[in-house]
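anyone else get weird line breaks when pasting these?? whatever heres mine. first is seq + tokens for prot A
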Amino acid sequence: MTDPYDLITMGRIGVDIYPLQTGVPLARVETFGKFLGGSATNVAVAAARLGRRTAVISRTGRDPFGDYIHQALRDFGVDDRWVTPVERYPTPVTFCEIFPPDDFPLYFYRRPKAPDLVIRPEELDQEAVRAARVFWMTGTGLCEEPSRAATLAALEARGKSGTTVFDLDWRPMFWGGEGGASGDGGATGPHAMAKARPYYEAALAHATVAVGNVDEAEVATGLRDPEDCARALLDMGVELAVIKQGPKGVLAVHRDGRVAEVPPTPVEVVNGLGAGDAFGGSLCHGLLAGWDLETVMRYANAAGAIVASRLACSSAMPTAAEVEAFLARRAGARP
């Protein structure tokens, strides 16, 4: 076996078809750009841009979009050996609308079934999964079989070796729900949340890090206060709980008592999609580097802010030099 990967991610992959015009509904958009997409994939790209050796476990259709995905992964320096084709399903595409600063509706085309939900347990390279310094999985991977069984099998193979990150990644429409967060008057649907919670609990028992926003943490814990969510996630088995709070910044709580609460990094938002994936890739980078908790959070916040100020997701992921320059400018601007 070759040296272990710094990071292996497992989950969604597809093609993002994003408008090249902002503030325009899809019905009136005339030009689009094509980008590599999928949250787990973007996290691997983000870490690769920071110099980490990364790979993705996922599946595509056997079609031209699948070919594009393989080429894009290679161009970003992400190993694509575990991205395999599914004959009967097309590669997913995702459209978005861009209404800065905070409205970015997503439209997923993943029917009749997304190939990334057809990852099978027997196809996993469990030795590589076990050996990876960081393994990253997502809530979406738990929503259907056989992906659910494969995701749980990968977690069991890890045995809490190294760092295992559960991206809580709540997409209610994949679980039979819709809309936003229940606590905000949305319509995630109690049925969808109740359906997901046992699988979230099973995954958390194997994870060492949980990361998500308050809406996503609510799915796992039933709570909405960020501090309560973090403590509940620790009680469910993780060593580090990271709660993203949007305009309130990020809260990180470690089982050993360390706490970091970092304010947001203000930027002029162009497209908020992908900022969380940049945060995730940078979180992995900082944990691998052994930085203190506050430094990791500030670095990840900065990477997310950079991507929010750009149009695309995967191709917008910053290099280490860009993040460091951004942080230096911010430090110099403070009185």
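and prot B, same format (seq, then tokens)
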Amino acid sequence: MSEQKYNVAVVGATGAVGEQILSLLEKRDFPVAELKLLSSARSAGKVLTFKGQDVVVEEATPDSFKGVDIALFSAGGDVSKELAPHAVSHGAVCIDNTNAFRMDPDKVLVVPEVNPEKIQEHNGIIANPNCSTIQMVAALKPLHDAFGIARIIVSTYQAVSGAGHKAIEEMLRQSKEILSGNADVQPDILPVGSLPVKHQIAFNAIPQIDKFTDNGYTLEEMKMVRETKKIMGDESIEVSATCVRIPVINGHSESVYVEFKNDYELEEVKSLLEKAPGITLVDDPASQAYPLASDAVGKPDVFVGRLRRDLTHSRGLNMWIVSDNLLKGAAWNAVQIAEIIVSNRNGRA
């Protein structure tokens, strides 16, 4: 990418998103001079491989960021709140995958296909949106520019990897137990590890992701509401979300109803999506071609299909949006931002 190289830190390197970030930095040949892999004390000492070299994972502390140019955080909101300011004080630009700074009015919230110009406005910390929000706004941005969006109603079908490695293990364990004839599985993780009531995820759908708020919506649902408005730069967009966890390992799917301010033609919608960066249109009902989570895994794009005019509203559009939640929904979005930072510093933006 560049002759100039940068000291990079990955915080939460042993987690699901951290592993994806590390893989992308290698695959994209990101200009890394020195790589620091940071984690909790529990994971410190593990050895990971980067470009054929063993790198020992260190415990993340306030002093870990001396000399670091770019720090990518994916170790939980509390860790980001504690350590990101220290990283900034040492001169690093932080790209944060948690909910710690997303709705902070002083922090930019970025999806490169939607609002890349915001990257240059950062004050040391750039927030990565929620995974379910990222794929939706990436698909809706070209349509909002063309027709104006008045209202969004979204129902999500979210993979268990969004809740971490332990949630994946729980789903696989429960599935094996049920298939072996044991119907009395013991859930330990989902829907929310810190809450007293847990539910079976195997062969099930749990209509709760994160904790409930006073208005009856979950935090995950409210993230989609608030983040969409901030990323789109339009507080007038009405958003309603229902977020559901389903027994899929990777790949979030979304059923989205969009109500435009202006009239539209379906063929123009398809044309806009075909030309949009980071979007792959898969929409051929005659051949049963539509986005599937199983097809999206390992791919950086957002996949869109099942496009159809709403039967009850002339300016309404229904669509199906799918993406790998660990890639575009987290790691790839963060690495994209880092690449733009590098390009800007080299005068290539």
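btw re prot B: The chain is about 30% helix and 25% strand. The longest strand covers residues 149-158.
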